[in-house]
Write a structure and sequence with these properties.
The chain is an alpha/beta fold. It folds into two domains: 1-44; 47-149, Zincin-like (2-Layer Sandwich). The protein has helices at 2-44, 56-77, 130-144, 146-149, 190-198; strands spanning 49-52, 86-90, 93-94, 98-99, 101-107, 113-120, 122-123, 126-127. A four-stranded mixed sheet has the order 1-2-6-5, covered by helices on one side. Strands 3-4 form a two-stranded antiparallel sheet. Strands 7-8 form a two-stranded antiparallel sheet. The chain is elongated and about 125 Å long. 12% of the residues are buried.
């Protein structure tokens, strides 16, 4: 009877040991799979390191937008982002005068080139919108990716800003017909104004 109890208790101990060992192996396998998946995810979503001088909520939002815009832009050009790309978003970027962005390139002793893109949150006291910030980032990335895609062979500038009215220009009443005004004078028709300017 005692021998049977000893055999039974030894079997229970072995079963517990084996169960503990299996749990440890399973835990280790899950951890290895998880860390491999994280490494693969980071490799596939390889993006720049982004440092932002702003409040936590704004910084988190901008960090996501900047990393996504940089990855999308590089993917659209068919290249990868340069390794070690650093994007610094700060209140002001100053290089002799206030700028929207500044690209710096550093040559390492081993021949690698590291890029730092500085982006400004405000220029001359005017806050910069997120769209302007991303446009400045893409402009700087184009220069940083020149090593991989080559220099542009064609560049066509386009300016869509409307011309502003000069401050010294006189105000002219434009009326389609020559009706009398309240003070008794007649308004000059538009055709006559155009004729006078042509001559």
């Amino acid at each position: 009877m005692t021998r049977r109890r000893r055999t039974k208790s030894r079997t229970v101990r072995l079963a517990r040991r084996w169960g503990d060992h299996c749990r440890r192996l399973l835990r280790r396998a899950v951890y290895c799979c998880w860390s491999a998946a994280v490494r693969l995810w980071r490799h596939l979503r390889r993006g720049p390191t982004v440092i932002i001088d702003a409040r936590r909520r704004q910084a988190r939002r901008l960090r996501r937008e900047i990393a996504r815009a940089a990855r999308t832009y590089a993917r659209a050009l068919g290249v990868e982002l340069p390794s070690g790309l650093l994007v610094v978003v700060q209140r002001v970027v100053h290089e002799g005068r206030q700028l929207n962005g500044l690209l710096q390139a550093f040559d390492a002793p081993n021949g690698d080139r590291r890029y730092v893109v500085h982006l400004a949150l405000s220029v001359n006291g005017r806050p910069v919108s997120d769209d302007e910030l991303l446009a400045a980032l893409r402009h700087q990335l184009t220069r940083a990716l020149e090593d991989a895609i080559g220099k542009p062979v064609l560049s066509v500038p386009l300016e869509l800003e409307m011309p502003r009215v000069r401050a010294g220009a006189s105000v002219v009443e434009l009326r389609p017909d020559a009706r009398e005004r309240q003070d008794g004078r007649r308004a000059t028709p538009i055709e006559r104004i155009e004729d006078n300017q042509a001559s």
